[in-house]
Specification:
Radius of gyration: 22 Å
Mean pLDDT: 90
Largest sheet: 8 strands, mixed
Number of helices: 9
Structural class: alpha+beta
Oligomer: single chain
Helix content: 25-40%
Strand content: 25-35%
Number of strands: 21
Low-confidence stretches: 1-5, 7-11
């Protein structure tokens, strides 16, 4: 590697880096590390890119995802700016068009609170850099006649793009194969191997051990299930359901740009699909989709664009976002175990934050930790304290819960409830 990786003392190794998880985060990290000369193995219990990465909407919306001028917004904005070069590089490397659409988004408000939020954004310092234009409901309908009468206001965000996440995953998988990344399909990582205070690799459920100088935990909603971690990893699954319409029917109004509201979004694809998402359900690993969830999506979508009610549904699906107690990802080196790196907990922003997270992982393994990563370190959860309630247990997994800012937080899966709840 250009900046030498930490060397293992004694014994052989199978790779410089083992990455647990072959989603957007793991694959992008593997790509950058391989470019730096590292030998990389990526392991995944399922097919690469087929979990949250496959199920996402592919929105690149740093402004809408964070109204505040906080560290999350700054890494989201940084990642957004990394996308054009990444898209072009992947196209040149493998010839795959990932449907990178730079048509902006129309964020609609159906309720008074939503209107106030749009007005705050429109008057913020980011109005210029993000190309914001606020419209009344009538003005928005004059520009986009498909919008419903319930739309009270709409904010056009010029710097709000999207990518076909499934095509992006395909391009990254192809790149991994071409550049020599060893992607192991059906390789279920069971435990982190730690010896003498150092990460030494992972053990698979088959019993095989993969030895490496660095281990990257990028297993999304399943990250906390790894054994051998030196500290609780508060990442829990949050189910999201989505559906896709066939928007190619005669007479269908044009769905450009992407449209969002307080509760849903509608994303057009170049192949004629119109994606609608997404529910947020704290139900553990209960799989979906469900009739209740799909009905909710239909109601939410037709409230914004009534014409979708007549479109055929061609696909429904569900998967699990990796949530954290504060909604921010966990990115950075473990403070006590050398060679162990976290890149998980991205909630609903894994596609958006993929490039910046990969950049962070490569920098950490190369020996550098810039200050902008500090707010996302796992050490921010060290403030969890023992609650006054005697030995509370998680409703989802049964593990111990600790008190943090008037919330009980599960140390294993991250599920939380109010301290006052029985």
């Amino acid at each position: 590697m250009s900046n030498p990786a930490r060397k293992m003392s004694g014994g052989g190794r199978d790779a410089d880096v083992v990455i647990v998880g072959a989603g957007i985060i793991g694959l992008m990290s593997a790509r950058l590390l391989r470019q730096q000369g590292a030998n990389v193995i990526v392991v995944d219990r399922e097919l690469p890119g087929r979990q949250a990465t496959w199920s996402a909407g592919g929105m690149l919306s740093p402004l809408i995802e964070s109204e505040d001028d906080d560290p999350f917004f700054h890494i989201a904005d940084r990642s957004f700016d990394l996308y054009p070069a990444l898209i072009e590089a992947l196209r040149q490397e493998g010839g795959i068009d990932v449907d990178y659409r730079r048509t902006g988004k129309l964020q609609c408000a159906l309720e008074d609170d939503g209107v106030m939020a749009l007005r705050r954004l429109a008057s913020s310092p980011r109005a210029g850099p993000y190309g914001l234009q606020l419209y009344s409901g009538d003005e928005a309908r004059a520009l986009h006649p498909a919008l419903s009468d319930r739309v009270q206001a709409a904010l056009f965000v010029e710097r709000d793009y999207c990518v076909d996440n499934r095509l992006l995953a395909r391009a990254l998988i192809q790149n991994a194969s071409a550049c020599g990344v060893d992607v192991r399909v059906g390789a279920d990582a069971e435990a982190i191997l730690i010896e003498g205070g150092d990460a030494r690799g992972v053990r698979l459920s088959s019993g095989e051990e993969l030895r490496a100088a660095h281990v990257v935990v990028a297993a999304g909603a399943w990250s906390a299930q790894l054994t051998g971690l030196p500290r609780p990893l508060p990442v829990r699954p949050l189910r999201g359901q989505m559906l896709a319409f066939d928007a190619r029917a005669a007479g269908t109004p044009a769905f450009e740009p992407a449209v969002g509201s307080e509760v849903c979004y509608l994303i057009p694809r170049s192949d004629g699909r119109l994606l609608v998402g997404a529910t947020v359900e704290d139900v553990g690993f209960e799989d979906g989709p469900t009739p209740e969830g799909i009905a909710w999506l239909l109601d939410a979508a037709t409230a914004v664009v009534p014409a979708v009610a007549s479109l055929p549904i061609i696909e429904t699906w569900a998967n699990f976002r990796p949530g954290t107690p504060d909604g921010w990802p966990i990115i950075g080196a473990d403070p006590t175990i050398a060679g162990l790196v976290y890149a998980t907990g991205h909630y609903r922003n894994g596609i958006l934050l993929g490039p910046v997270t990969a950049e962070a992982v490569a920098m950490i393994i190369g020996g550098t930790t810039p200050d902008w990563m500090n707010p996302f370190a796992i050490s921010r959860f060290d403030g969890l304290s023992t609650p006054t309630v005697a030995d509370p247990r998680c409703d989802l997994c049964g593990s111990k819960m600790l008190d943090r800012h008037c919330k009980l937080v599960c140390v294993q899966c991250g599920y939380q409830r109010d301290c006052s709840d029985p």
